[in-house]
Hints:
By secondary structure, the protein is mainly alpha-helical. The chain is built from 21 helices and 2 strands. Helices cover 71% and strands 2% of the residues. It is globular. InterPro entries: MFS, MFS_trans_sf, SLC43A3.
Amino acid sequence: MQVLENKLSVRRCLTFVTGLVECLCFAGVVFGWASLVFVLKEDGYFSSLCFNTTGVNGTQILDCSAQDEQFSLIFTITSFINNFFALPNGFLFDHFGTTVARLLAILNKLLRLFLIFFSFPSALSFLLFLALPLLAVGGILFLITNMQIGNLFDSRRSTIINLYNGAFDSSSALFLIIKLLHESGVSLRTSFLFLSACSVVHILRTFFLLPRTFIPHPLPDRYAYGCEQTSWCLFLSEKTFRECLLSRFFVGHLLWLSVMQLRHFLFIGTLNPMLLRLTDGDSSLVSQYTNAFAFTQLCAVLCAPWNGLIMDRHRGKPRAAGETEHEADLRASVLSLFLTALQCVLFSLCASIPSLPLQYLTFILQVLNRSFLYGGNAAFISVAFPSCHFGKLYGLVMVLSAVFSLLQYPCFALVKGPLGGDPLYVNVGLTLLSVLAFIHPVFVYMHCRNLASERAKSKASS
C-alpha cells in the first residue's frame, strides 16, 4: 500500500512539473506580441504599407502608421479569438475529456506554426491573420487541460491554478527569446520549425501523465489516472449550468474580468507605437524597452502563486461554526479579487502618464496585475461553481469578455485618428472604467457577511 502511494505521489509531482513547463513554454506565447512585432517589422511584413512623407521641418520621414494598424488589427483579432474559442474549448473538454482536447490542441499548434513558417514577408503577410489566432486557440486548450492538476493537491489547489496561469502569462517571453535569436542571426522560420518538433513532448504528456477524461474534485482516495469516475461533479452538484450562468456571481465576475482585460489588451496592442512616440522613433530605445517589457513577463510565474497563496491561506483558517467549505472558499477569494482590481487601477494610472522611464514601473505593475487577473479568474470559477461546469463557465466568461475587448479596436482608431496618436484621453477613460472592477469583490464580501449574519441569527434563535 505504501509503495502504491509513493508511486502515485511521484507521478503527481511529475505531472505538476511537466504541466508547469508546458504552460511556461507553449501556452500563452501570443501575448509576447510586442517582441514578435519587432521581428516581423525587421523581416518586412506589411512593409509595402510604409511610404515616405515630408516632416514638419521639410525632412523626409518614413510613415509606417498603416503597417502599425495592420499589426494592431491582427492582435485585436487574436486576443478576441483567444477568448472566443475558450467556450467551444470548454465544452469540448467537459464533454470529451482531456485526451481529445489535447490532441486537437497539438494539431492546431502544428498548423499555426507551419503557417508562420511558410509566410513570406511581401506576398503572404496576410497568413498572419490566420496563424496568430490559431496560436491563441491551441494555447488556451493546453491551459484548460492543465489547470485540473490543481485537484491533485487539494490544500494548494488555488496556488497551483494561479501558478499555471502565471506560467501561461510568462510564456509570452518565448517571443523575446525568438527576437534575441533573430538578432543573433537565427531566422524566424528556424525558430518555428524547432517549436513544431516540440509537439512530441505534448503527445507524451497526453498519453502518460494525464487522464483520458478528468481529474475529479474532491479527489477519491488513492486516485489513479485512467480510473473512470461515474460521477465526478460532487461539489455543489445541485446547481445546473443555467443557474450558474444567471447567478450574480457570474455576472459580477464577468464585469470584473472584462474591464481589466480590455485595459491589458489595449496596452499590449499599442505598446510598440507608444514606445515609438515616447522615444521619437529611436529604434534602439524601442528595442531596449521592448526587451524590458518581455523580461518582466517572465516574472508572471513568480507573481501568480502569491494570489493563490492568499486564497489558500485564508481558506485554511478555522471555519466559523456552521460555515461550509463553499462559504470558506468564497470568503477567501474576496481579498484576492480586491487586490487585483486595485493593481489594475494603479497600472492604468502609470500607463496614462507619458513618461518613458515610468514605463519600467508600468511593466512591473502590468505583469503583477495580469498574473493576479487570470489566475484569480480561474481560481474563483473553480471555487464558486460546480467542477463539472468549470470548462463551460471558464470558456463562457472568456468569450463574453472577448466581445467586450473588441472595444480596443475603436480605441486604436480613435488614438490614430481624432487624437493624433496621443492616447492620453483614452487611457484616462479606461482608468475610470477599471474602477468598476471593485463591484465584484464588494458583492462577494456582502454575500459572505449576509451568510454569517444568518448563521448568527439562526444560532441565537435556537
